[in-house]
Amino acid sequence: MISILIPTYNYNTLPLVEELCRQTLSESIEFEIIVSDDASPINENTEINSKINQIANCQFERNEINLGRGQNRNNLVKKAKYDWVLLMDCDTFPKEKNYIKTYIESIKN
Description:
Strands 3-2-1-4 form a four-stranded parallel beta sheet, with helices on both faces. The protein is 37% helix and 21% strand. The chain is globular. The chain is built from four helices and four strands; from the N terminus they run βαβαβαβα. The chain has helices spanning 14-26, 44-49, 69-79, 99-108; strands at 2-8, 31-37, 58-62, 84-87. The two termini are 15 Å apart. By secondary structure, it is an alpha/beta fold.
């Protein structure tokens, strides 16, 4: 149903993914969350983000070379398996616990 795509660079994206996953699971819909790191230095953030791969329906990948913001986003969209796509910046966080529910209702209408 929905692919949530998050480009990142040297940022801890795990809390965002955990929140989006929790909200999406509560809606009982098919989803995937893909985080693509644009070749940031391997450091603590990279290690933390690799834990995303342990969450069901979630994937963290790291580009070997820096593609730039636009190409990283385009590659994420190409990898999406669902028709509905939500692109989110890594440094955002939903203020509301029903963010995904509201988003899904909006795109259905």
